[in-house]
Amino acid sequence: GGPGLRRGFLKEYEGARNEAGERHGRGKARLPNGDTYEGSYEFGKRHGQGTYRFKNGARYIGEYFRNKKHGQGTFIYPDGSRYEGEWANDQRHGHGVYYYVNNDTYTGEWFTHQRHGQGTYLYAETGSKYVGTWVNGQQEGAAELIHLNHRYQGKFLNKNPVGPGKYIFDVGCEQHGEYRLTDMERGEEEEEEELITVVPKWKATKITELALWTPALPKEPTSTDGPGQEGPGAESTGEPGEEAQALLEGFEGETDMRPGDEDADVLREESREYDQEEFRYDVDEGNINSEEEETRQLDLQD
User: Fold this and answer.
1) Region annotation Disordered: residue ranges (predicted)?
2) Residue 260 buriedness (CB in 10 A; 0-12 / 13-18 / 19+)
3) pTM
């Protein structure tokens, strides 16, 4: 081989060209900065399906449109986190799943590289999940925070709940109330007054029962099999049940914009489905912003 092939390195470009001498068709290229690309070209530009490997270990496997990541693609970041989904104009845009280093996942809508629209964030450590609205990468708007034995429905701002909302407990009751911003009281001995943080404080207003069955006065003598028989058919479930149902439905109508829950495998093939089973969730989103910065640097190199 010629000098370009010493030590197994690629030449600047090996592959098909058109009459004008432009890279056109399948080819392999090594960029001046050490990155490599193997895939499809059109009129001298990366176009179609290809794999781009960054010198720092990151890689993109997916579709290109005139040199830009565009269409369906998977980006694996240097820290091992990855995004699988739609791209537009070199940015995460459309629908996609991000798998974070700590095993958290975000599944939902993206807009110019950020989580934006409807999406679900699963906290791997605690098994909790945030299902709802995102604005410019942050949890903001109407949403539901689902924990292992209760959930909170309300509005969020800067990742914190704000204003009226309700806790729904699996034991069968709801606690209505609102979050008000209060200054965190700090002990005087700490002498850190400049670090006062504003935290939302929950003020409960009322507790309502959720469709709890209470034995009614027996109207017919059906005591042969014990009270268990009356359960599902008991008339007393009507009133609170419907009221609670209406409350729940009212909220779901507002936030339930995600498609039906499907099998986990579908995520990979068709990242358009949500899988509630596999999703788990923790209130610290520590490493979320690190990937944003990482990407900015990568994109500069690309």
Assistant:
1) 213-302
2) exposed
3) 0.65
